[in-house]
Please model this.
Amino acid sequence: MKGSDYIYIGLFLVSIVLLFFAVKNYNKTKTLLANGIKTKAKVIDLIAISSDDGYTYKPVFEYTNKLDEVITFKSSVSSSPASYEVGEIVEIVYSKNSEERKVISFWGLYRWTIILSIFAFPLLIVGGGYLLYSRF
Model:
């Protein structure tokens, strides 16, 4: 086995691990959508986060759960320009048993699945393609 084979084997294995976590995250989101509680949340604040490129804005949501408790949580994502306006109503889904909650939007639900897949597929094509080509 040549030295470069180890690099391609490594790329292939990394891609498999990334795909595993992408599928795991997708299934977790699918379960949350099937078993979670959907409700409306209101954007109550936009937190300005300073960076080298200027400011990004992280929304703070507030909703009432099934026990009539008011829950406030910060989004894990910030953007510039702001994705939401203060006072805007968005649909969220939250888990009955844990602190997991997500905004019901394509990016809000499938962000990590997409990001992991973006890195995994090129590595899979390069590493797997080389391994297939070198064996036949």
